[in-house]
């Protein structure tokens, strides 16, 4: 998805004055600082003209004692974006357990005679956000191993463990075709090892100059219907290929061109009706394993009488939160929310799951002013939370038996390994924050947040929350990062680092991963 940032010039003197006035106003109700040097340094950073007319909330704690070392608008409400995943993941670890697994079942109705099942196969989703195409192939192999080669009925797609609402409250309609906004169902299939659920790869391979490019899908069973073509242009002309799924259908409009002789272009597109999609992939796997299903795929109603035939278990929850936090996988966060609702509240829907998450926060003393949560990933702009509440959560998490697994799942600043650095892989490199700061980012248009832990030069562990909302001009990310660097560096960071000019916002797409399917984290994505 392309997005444009609308920038405007701000006279420096006026901007500094505005930011200074904002700082004075904001600090009027803030608690007295516990660290005068830190306060002076962070105030300098927060007077940056990039924050003029924006809202900034910051809280820094001694992570061991809970002492507030710095606070700026700690009780104000902010849009959390993907930092909300810290709330969802900690609640899931606490309420479901680090060893929790999801189970997907194949069940049968009717009776088997010799090699024929007179009845249906039911593919029953257990909410697994990480079910892969190869896992469905393995299940198909298990069915074939029972001796069944013919199914007289159908494959029934059973996603009824969760409610039938596929998209979260307040999710943007124009995000729907893109991989970070998958439809949520208890039965869904992921297309790669990073668990990009409910997506298909549309692969565009150039032909000869003047010919239409070849268009295929991965997996082949993806129910896409293509409208239009992508032309093959002259060598060296680059790619302008457009792939756009129409709302409410699996019709995909194709446009533009790819250069002759160039590598294939791949677009990741969400799929309408995840349960049916997963079941079609399963039916394809059955056919490859010699099992013929005579009546195709149909939705289950959840009340079918059936017997277990084969099953697949997911990795543990402690393992699944790694891609959820490192690369900000929204689908995993939403599955955890609905699963919490199902297991703890009896209903697999967002409202029940969120109520259970709020009960977890309250039971652990994470209180404060009324906040609002409607989903698990932070995709919704209805979500609102305070820096103080986030900071309290960071402190509480340290006392939990699952803390080490959760801490290690947070992105690590400046580490180039994808499943270590995650969304922070290209940020704060060459500073004291590199391989020091463990933190979750959260961004969407006008929002740039960061919260987590930094180890100070004296060995103290600091918990910090930085939330910047409602900016419309130049990205404030260098300021956000400079705060984390200051915590990792100590007072020696001044004055050079405090100008926050040595930390530049990454260019291109997807934080550290320009050119991949990850959208622009500074504009409209939610990472």
From TrEMBL:
EC code(s) of this entry: 3.4.16.4
A GO molecular-function descriptor: serine-type D-Ala-D-Ala carboxypeptidase activity
Residue ranges of the TM segments: none
Naturally occurring in which organism (per UniProt): Kitasatospora cheerisanensis KCTC 2395
UniProt enzyme class: hydrolase
NCBIfam families, A to Z: PBP4
Cleaved signal peptide residues: 1-28
Keywords assigned: Carboxypeptidase, Hydrolase, Protease, Signal
BP terms from Gene Ontology: peptidoglycan metabolic process; proteolysis
Protein's UniProt name: Putative D-alanyl-D-alanine carboxypeptidase
Stored SUPFAM superfamilies: beta-lactamase/transpeptidase-like (SSF56601)
Family affiliation: Belongs to the peptidase S13 family.
């Amino acid at each position: 998805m392309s997005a444009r940032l609308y920038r405007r010039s701000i006279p420096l003197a006026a901007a500094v004055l505005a930011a200074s006035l904002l700082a004075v106003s904001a600090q009027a109700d803030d608690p007295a600082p516990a660290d005068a040097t830190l306060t002076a340094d962070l105030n300098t950073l927060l007077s940056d003209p990039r924050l003029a007319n924006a809202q900034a909330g910051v809280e820094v704690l001694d992570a061991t004692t809970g002492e507030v070392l710095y606070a700026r608008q700690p009780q104000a409400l902010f849009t959390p974006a993907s930092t909300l995943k810290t709330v969802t993941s900690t609640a899931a670890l606490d309420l479901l357990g680090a060893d929790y697994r999801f189970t997907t079942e194949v069940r049968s109705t009717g009776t088997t005679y010799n090699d024929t099942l007179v009845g249906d196969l039911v593919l029953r989703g257990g909410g697994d956000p990480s079910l892969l195409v190869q896992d469905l192939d393995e299940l198909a192999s298990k069915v074939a191993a029972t001796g069944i080669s013919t199914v007289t009925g159908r494959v029934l797609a059973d996603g009824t463990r969760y409610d039938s609402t596929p998209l979260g409250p307040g999710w943007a309609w124009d995000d729907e075709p893109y991989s970070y906004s998958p439809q949520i169902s208890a039965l869904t299939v992921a297309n790669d090892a990073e668990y990009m659920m409910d997506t298909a790869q549309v692969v565009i391979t150039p032909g000869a100059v003047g010919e239409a490019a070849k268009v295929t899908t991965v997996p082949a069973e993806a129910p896409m219907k293509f409208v239009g073509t992508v032309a093959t242009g002259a060598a060296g002309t680059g790619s302008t290929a457009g792939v756009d799924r129409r709302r409410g259908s699996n019709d995909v409009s194709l446009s533009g061109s790819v250069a002759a002789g160039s590598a294939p272009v791949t677009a990741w597109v969400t799929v309408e009706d995840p349960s049916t999609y997963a079941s079609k992939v399963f039916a394809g796997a059955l056919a490859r394993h010699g099992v013929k299903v005579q009546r195709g795929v149909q939705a289950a109603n959840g009340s079918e009488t059936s017997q277990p035939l084969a099953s697949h278990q997911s990795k543990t929850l402690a393992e699944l939160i790694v891609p959820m936090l490192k690369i900000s996988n929204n689908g995993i966060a939403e599955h955890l929310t609905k699963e919490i609702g199902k297991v703890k509240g009896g209903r697999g829907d967002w409202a029940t799951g969120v109520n259970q998450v709020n009960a977890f926060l309250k039971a652990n003393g994470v209180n404060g002013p009324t906040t609002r949560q409607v989903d698990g990933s932070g995709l919704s702009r209805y979500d609102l939370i305070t820096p103080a509440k986030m900071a309290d959560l960071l402190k509480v998490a340290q006392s939990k038996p699952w803390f080490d697994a959760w801490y290690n799942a947070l992105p690590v600043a400046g580490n180039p390994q994808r499943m270590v650095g995650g969304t922070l892989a290209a940020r704060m490199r060459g500073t004291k924050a590199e391989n020091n700061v463990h933190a979750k980012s959260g961004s969407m248009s006008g929002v740039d947040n960061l919260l987590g832990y930094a180890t100070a030069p004296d060995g103290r562990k600091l918990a910090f929350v930085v939330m910047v909302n409602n900016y419309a001009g130049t990205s404030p990310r260098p300021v956000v990062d400079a705060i984390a660097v200051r915590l990792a560096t100590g007072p020696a960071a001044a004055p050079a680092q405090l100008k926050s000019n040595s930390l530049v916002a990454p260019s291109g797409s997807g934080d550290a991963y320009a050119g991949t399917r990850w959208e622009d984290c500074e504009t409209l994505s939610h990472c």
